[in-house]
Target: Branched-chain-amino-acid aminotransferase
Amino acid sequence: MQRLENPGFGRIFTDHMVTVSWEAGKSWHDASVRERTPFQLDPASAVLHYAQEIFEGMKAYRTEKGGIVLFRPEENARRFRSSAERMAMPVMPEEMFLTAIEELVRIDRDWIPSGEGSLYLRPFMFADEAFLGVRPATRYTFCVIASPVGAYFKGGAKPISVWVSDAYSRAAPGGTGAAKCGGNYAASLIAQAQAAEKGCDQVVFLDAAEHRWVEELGGMNIFFVMEDGTIVTPPLGTILPGITRASLMILARDAGMRVEEKAYSFDQWQDDAARGRLREAFACGTAAVVAPIGNVRHAHGEFSIAGGEVGPVTRKLRETLVGIQKGSQADAHGWLHVIA
Ligand code: PLP
Ligand code: COI
Model:
């Protein structure tokens, strides 16, 4: 398919979707794989008013030998469950979640690009009870759609620029930062738009309480590579527990690097960059894979990292991760889930 040659991110969709309904007293029912069609929603549907919605992001890859694989889909199933718990939504059994993903990948397998692209899978669930009282809804729809994708950023694998937001926070202790709910992204859009105005690819959020500690980007986790080879990443809590983040920590340790999950302040980041103690920084996530950070802008100035180039540690981690996903490197941890 010619459309698959340069798909960009999230603009093209496959022919099918999976839907499963949930209703109080009936649990999950009416699972189907069908033609992709618009939903009919009652104007009073709870999701339209109170944003009871969660989603996941994962990819199906065509390996170099022609097989089709998912990367750690059990982790997406588990995170979907914990997001549902946080948003007072019904929990989908992990096996049902995985079956839904597999069925869609099988029926839309011709849409998986070969080469660098992949098929981005977007499972999501929303409240569709028509009721305006504020309480957890009693009806939900689960759905999976798919989109052939290439690079998330326009510049491909080139270093990205980031804007450190001094005005907005993404999440607070006790809030929904660790859940993958649509509301988190709605709240991040103004900060992301400001980053774009400043000429940057992504926004970096600092913590809500002190506005001091680096948390994550609008749609990615963040890592720092120090001069002694140690890799630092902010701890879990208010950030999204990224599956790429967790995997890269393991791959870095496999390669003999020291990895620390610890609070890292923006002041420290600037100081380490100025004194040459910070060698590299990168963002990571399913959509973005591993994206080197070349330039950092903030309210009082800007600085570059690794001379705006791709550093060796970032390059190596990216190559190892992509190599496993594409089947060209050994899958030592059993992360690939083969679609028969
Ligand atoms: N942080 C945010 C806010 C995200 O949206 C994402 C993307 O899913 C990530 C981190 C990375 O998570 P993962 O590696 O599981 O895709
Ligand atoms: C992902 O990497 O899957 C994301 O969800 C990030 C963004 C596209 C929302």
